[in-house]
Every structure is written in structure tokens, then in C-alpha cells.
Amino acid sequence: MAEKRMLIVPAELVKKIDDNRGDMTQAEFIDFLIDGQLKEEIKEQKYATKEEIRSFEQDMKKLLKNFLDFFVSYGLELGKQSPKTEFEELTSKLQELEDDLGSEGKGKKEATIKWK
To answer: What's the whole-number mean pLDDT along residues 85-106?
Structure first.
């Protein structure tokens, strides 16, 4: 049987341990936490920050605006007679995107996307 020792810790820490350990004993829980911190294989999980998400959103809006610009101009070059309401709807969507990009895009960093 393993030798046992006493560890003196603040009462607040014991309360945290008891609140979070579930069905484990205090010793098992502390051992589990230590093992998790000392593992040789460190699994890094990278999460996007709020700024990166906003930047990505802005970039996607710019991309969408460019696609809409292309398709509108392509349709106009072909001489397709599209209904006036459809053209006005596309124009208003483009204007909304442009306004949105102008108001939110000030001072924002651009996101870089790496494809694998």
C-alpha cells in the first residue's frame, strides 16, 4: 500500500476540489489534474479570438460583395434583359454590404486563411 501523507491547503481550495471532483476522491482528483498538466504530449487547441472572427466575417462580406459585383457586371455585359426590380435588389444588397464593410471594417485586422 502506498505511503500516505497529509497536505495542508486553504479551505477555499478544498471547497473548489470538492465542488469539481464528481465521483472521484480528493486524492484521485488531484492526481488527475497533475497528470493532465504534466503529460509529455501537449495537445494544443487553438481557438479563434473575437477579433479574428470579426475579421473573418468582414473578409467573407468583401468576398460576397466581389462575387455579386462580378455577376451583376457579367449579366450586364451579356445584355441579358433582367427585370428592373431584380437589378435594384442586387444593387441595394451591394450597397448594404459596402456600408456594412465601411462602418465595421475600420481598424480591423485581416484574417489569414491557410488551406491544407
So the answer is: 73
**Long-range contacts made by residues 88-93, C-beta under 8 angstroms, separation at least 24?**
93/68
Residues 6+ apart with CB under 8 A from 108: 51, 54, 55, 58
Q: Cα 7 to chain center, whole Å?
A: 41
Q: How far apart are CA 101 and CA 68, in angstroms?
A: 15
78-88 tens-digit pLDDT: 665 656 677 77
Mean pLDDT of the chain: 78
Amino acid (one-letter) located at 116: K
Can you spell out the DSSP letters for 55-93?
HHHHHHHHHHHHHHHHHHHHHHHHT----HHHHHHHHHH
Helix, strand, coil percentages (3-state) for the chain, rounded to 5, are 65, 0, 35
| Mean pLDDT computed over 32-44 | 75
Q: How confident is the model at residue 106 (pLDDT cuts 50, 70, 90)?
A: low
